[in-house]
Design brief:
seven-stranded parallel beta sheet; alpha+beta; single chain; binds 1-deoxynojirimycin; binds calcium ion; 13 helices
């Protein structure tokens, strides 16, 4: 066994898998995680262990190329570099107001003698996991190349339990399935549940971030970080050997990446801990991203908002002005003639009603969807109008409404549904952002519903990934924040571009109004989708029985009301919506108080209890005060917690307001039964709280006499 010392870092021989000899071993700063790497028979390989337990067995690395020899084998190690890094940085917004980035790093410099080409593999080892990436230095013979597929393997040590969604190039909006790895194939068709945008590429293909648990209690998570100019990675399982292999999203020609050196892949990440709470608290993905590129970030501000939205999603009303009357011209000025039923909620009168309610209750912004011409074309009902993102419908007076909002101390939030006609969006983007500047909008929710145009491209391919980032960078030139729906799953890019204030990229509350969301969904998302960045989950539904306001929709929301409050704490996001209708909030103003109080930016976050698929309890301290907020979300079995308030300042008195499920609450038949209890607490207090089936709770804790 070679023991080598490079720079200040000991790269020591592996002690725990004596049967295997590894040339290079790199331990994490606290010696908790260990990475082994080598080139065996010309193939680069690695393995990972945690507190001496294997996590990833020997797994090969490499990339297959189109038309030229692959970068998968025939390698030799020509050099290594190692270093340590320890820095604390300040995010513009986040779960914590400072983040430590502490790792040991090793670069394996490889050469393929038969082609004289070079490739490096850079590993970073943290106490909570590992990141590694391929690097292609600029060189003759590798200036420009096309990836056929990436051959990165992740060899599992057993038939773990996994929380997974089907591999799919165009949607992430699935319920999760909990199963053994060996059961993925059998469960694939029920996991798709009629929701696939296309047939999955493989009966054992899944998306990242993938959360797993071993039989001896290790939590393992595989994802990627800093997905830039590359296609998004899926994982394809060999369910005989239990080895995952990366599977990149193809382009219209079936190719998986166009690379010009010098270049590198995104980081492949493996997080690991024996405590589920550490997976939620991990900053590994953010840390693997580059620091913020903007000098001035004063314009980037967390946002609490309401929306003219649920009326369409659940209420059955229309985005389009001329819906089902395609013959009616938009120059019709009499709105009542065009829409005798008043089915277009983005009209002056209704928007003013929302502005009044949002402003009275302290919100920052109001989203208005369906404000602009183009929805007719999308529905194929008219060829007269396309989205240009600047032309309001006749019943939406953009100037008057923005001024009205301003006079009440709030802003309107822009909406750009691109209908995935991406070239059309790029053509109009600059005038669209100019219009936002003109009227004072500083945030846009964008959307990518439908098949991508140009046809054949996919939502998660390299071309689209470049588009999403282009939209964010161009928006920054206008000091605009972006919240993109249906875009590729986040990979921590919000560290580098913090005006990427939110994303959807998973099944969100909109599904409660149609196909449904499993009660345990929100106990999984923070382990998976939220690893890469915040989600615009749009919580805050108080009326679970949709037929109350839309007789044509029998859908019921699979959650109690108290749990909807808890989500403002468990689902971290600097952009949070109160998604329900003002009239539904008006009936429960005592519970609505929590949504009014809860901040959207934090000094400190602590995960008190967590188990994927079961429950999550989080506590967070407001960034701008000494107030604390606690939230819980539970699956269909409910959950009883005993939480200690040891995180409060010692010797201080606080008042806790506890919003909890009533004893007889149940997401299915009694979701609106809640209680609100006030209690004096301090750092020695313990609270025993019960979340109903599909329930949760929320607590605000404020210092007394301050
Ligand atoms: C899907 C988005 O997720 C939803 O929020 C939006 O209302 C519709 N697209 C229309 O843009
Ligand atoms: Ca969506």
């Amino acid at each position: 066994m070679k023991n080598i010392v490079i720079k200040n870092l000991m790269v020591a021989g592996l002690l725990t898998i004596p049967a295997t000899m590894w040339a290079y071993t790199l331990e994490s700063p606290g010696k908790i995680v260990s990475l082994e790497a080598d080139v065996k028979d010309g193939i680069p390989v690695y393995s990972i262990s945690y507190k001496n337990k294997p996590v990833i067995k020997s797994s090969s690395l490499g990339v297959k190329l189109v038309e030229v020899p692959d970068l998968t084998d025939g390698f030799e190690v020509v050099g290594t570099q190692a270093s340590s890094f320890d820095e604390t940085w300040t995010p513009v917004w986040g779960e914590n107001d400072s983040i430590r980035n502490h790792y040991n790093e090793m670069v394996l410099e490889l050469r393929q003698p038969s082609t004289d080409r070079k490739m490096n593999i850079r590993f970073r080892v943290y106490d909570d996991g590992v990141g590694f990436r391929y690097e292609w230095p600029q060189q003759r013979g590798l200036d420009y190349f096309v990836i056929d597929d990436e051959m990165t393997e992740f060899a599992m040590t057993g038939d773990h339990t996994a929380w997974w969604i089907a591999g799919d190039y165009d949607t992430q909006e699935y319920n999760y399935t909990e199963s053994r790895l060996s059961e993925i194939r059998d469960k694939m068709s029920s996991a798709i549940d009629g929701n696939a945008s296309q047939t999955p590429f493989s009966p054992t293909g899944v998306q990242t971030s993938l959360q797993m648990k071993t039989d001896d209690g290790l939590y393992i998570n595989i994802h990627e970080a800093a997905l830039v100019d590359y296609s998004c990675m899926h994982l394809n399982l060999n369910d005989t050997t239990l080895v995952f292999r990366s599977w990149l999203t193809p382009d219209a020609q079936g190719h998986k990446g166009h690379i010009q050196s010098p270049a590198h892949s995104p980081w492949r990440t493996v997080m690991v801990s024996d405590d589920a709470r550490d997976i939620l608290a991990s900053n590994l993905i953010l840390n693997l991203n580059e620091p913020c590129v903007y000098e001035d970030v004063s314009w980037i501000k967390p946002v609490k908002y309401m929306g003219v939205w649920w009326e369409m999603i659940a209420g059955g009303k229309q985005w389009s002005y001329t819906y089902d009357l395609p013959s009616v011209r938009l120059d019709e000025t009499d709105y009542t003639k065009v829409h005798p039923l008043g089915q277009h909620p983005a009209n002056n009168e209704n928007v003013k009603r929302y502005i009044d309610f949002a402003a009275e209750n302290g919100f920052d912004q109001l989203l208005v969807e369906g404000w602009n011409v183009g929805w007719e074309d999308w529905f194929g009902k008219s060829k007269d109008y396309v989205f240009d993102f600047v032309t309001p419908y006749p019943d939406f007076d953009i100037e008057m409404l923005n001024n009205y909002a301003k006079s009440k101390g709030i802003k309107l939030m822009m909406h750009h549904e691109t209908s995935s006609s991406v070239r059309n969006y790029e053509r109009h983007m600059h005038q669209a952002y100019d219009l936002m500047d003109k009227y004072g909008y500083n945030a846009v929710k964008s959307g990518y519903v439908g098949n991508i145009i140009p046809r054949g491209e996919h939502h998660y391919g390299q071309w689209m990934n470049n588009h999403y980032l282009y939209a964010v960078k161009e928006a920054a030139k206008h000091k605009i924040m972006v919240n993109a729906h249906e875009a590729v799953r986040p990979t921590g890019l919000c560290r580098t571009y913090p005006n990427l204030i939110g994303n959807e990229s998973a099944r969100g509350t909109e599904y409660e109004a149609n196909a449904g969301i499993n009660p345990g969904h929100t106990t999984i998302l923070p382990f998976t989708r939220l690893q890469g960045g915040p989600m615009d989950y749009t919580p805050g539904i108080f009326e679970m029985n949709i037929s109350t306001f839309n007789p044509n929709n029998p859908a019921k929301v699979n959650s109690t009301l108290a749990r909807q409050l808890g989500l403002y704490v468990t689902m971290y996001s600097p952009l949070q919506m109160a998604a329900d209708l003002p009239e539904n909030y008006a009936r429960y103003m005592d519970a609505f108080q929590f949504i009014k109080d809860v901040p959207v930016d934090w000094q400190k976050s602590i995960y008190l209890e967590a188990e994927p698929g079961r429950y999550i309890v989080a506590a967070r301290k407001d960034k701008n005060s000494n107030d604390w907020f606690v939230g819980c979300t539970a699956n269909e079995d409910g959950h009883t917690s005993t939480i200690s308030l040891g995180f409060l300042d010692k010797g201080k008195d606080y008042e806790a307001v506890i919003y909890a499920d009533a004893k007889d609450a149940h997401f299915r038949n009694n979701p609106q039964a809640y209680s609100i209890v006030r209690k004096k607490v301090n750092s020695k207090s313990k609270l025993r709280l019960t979340a109903a089936p599909g329930g949760g709770y929320a607590i605000s804790i404020k210092p007394v006499n301050l």
